[in-house]
Amino acid sequence: MITGGGYQGKTETACEIAADFEDDWLDLHHHLNPAAVAGTRDLHAPVAYVQTPVTAKPKSTCKAILSFYGAGTKNMDLPGLVRQVAASINDHGTKALLLDDITRLRMHRADDQDVLDLIRAFMSMHVTLVLIGVDIPGSGLLREGRHDPRTGQWILPPSRHARVHGLEATQTERRFGLIELDRFRYDTPPQITAWAQHLAGVEQQLRLMDAAPGMLTGGTMPGYLYRRTDGVVGLLERVIEDGCREAIDTGTERLTQALLDNVVLSLAGAPGRDAEAGEIPAVPPGPAPPAGGDTGKRKRGRNTVFDDRGPASGTGA
Ligand SMILES: Nc1ncnc2c1ncn2[C@@H]1O[C@H](COP(=O)(O)OP(=O)(O)OP(=O)(O)O)[C@@H](O)[C@H]1O
Ligand SMILES: [Mg+2]
Questions:
Q1: CA torsion 237→241→246→247, rounded to 10°?
Q2: Which atom, in ligand 1's list, is nearest to the CA of 280?
Q3: Residue among 264, 275, 262, 273 nearest 238 (CA)
Q4: In the structure, which protein residues have their CB atom closer than 6 angstroms to any atom of ligand 1?
Q5: pLDDT tens readout for residues 120-138
Q6: How far is CA 23 from CA 16, 92, 132, 179, 259, in A?
Q7: Nearest C-alpha to atom 31 of ligand 1 is from which residue?
Q8: Fewer Cβ within 10 Å of end Cβ, the chain: N or C?
Q9: Rounded to two decimals, what is the model's pTM?
Q10: How far is the CA of 51 from the centre of ligand 2 (A)?
Q11: Whose CA is nearest to atom 10 of ligand 1?
């Protein structure tokens, strides 16, 4: 399980790692499915990545997984869906199943047991299960788990039901690690170095005509960017992206604190994120407005490059 705050790069990091694993696995097996059934031509998918639907229930979660495989789900009840998930994972040679935004699964008292049993059912399939979500410890998903201080792992005891969603319940407990992906911190020298290294990496990717080396890493810039973003990578990306657009629009072609002061961070309506599941982090207040009332701040304007301003006026033509 991978937990952390919203916008902290959980999805990006997990997908990078999964993609590397898939490349290695395919190379290792010469791009063939080592468990292929003779005479069949199932698509080989070593990694399956699925986003949990907003306000998900066990059934819709299974349907989301099956739609990754393009498998049918018509008129199936929950046990049927779970069996079909197990069959699809097996048929497609899937080794890692990533379920992102798992904390969208609502844990209401009535369906708690259903959700936990669904996770048990996934854990019993022959696949490495990776669950990613915002604040997993606070979500109820660990409610029946207990922490083993000896190994640092969590232990999920077997279900008390004889059958779990159509699969035979196993009597084995399931062990898993809980990894926290934290935001950057800015208190100790190693933490500050890590932040500066991240900024150096970002800086190398920027293509502004007037960018000077150390534009993001020199002087008070690292501290300034930290205050603007609280060390959240997703917020940093937004500040930099909006700042670059401003730098291009105004012809400045470089990022400075004065220019970034004009960039107002807002995540309202960020696509593909569920605010109710905590996926939108608090945005730190922007820079203090200069004395005198008018803040001079403006929200990023619309890009006007392709606007049709109408035919040039006839006079003098
Ligand atoms: N290491 C990184 N370097 C640069 N940008 C990054 C990095 N990791 C993530 N980002 C960017 O930050 C933004 C947020 O990342 P991501 O969507 O992975 O966060 P998340 O933790 O999954 O958020 P949510 O909780 O909303 O699902 C994305 O636009 C992503 O491209
Ligand atoms: Mg995500």
A1: 100
A2: 26
A3: 264
A4: 4, 6-12, 101, 134, 233-234, 237, 273, 279
A5: 999 989 999 999 999 999 8
A6: 11, 16, 21, 23, 41
A7: 12
A8: C
A9: 0.84
A10: 8
A11: 9
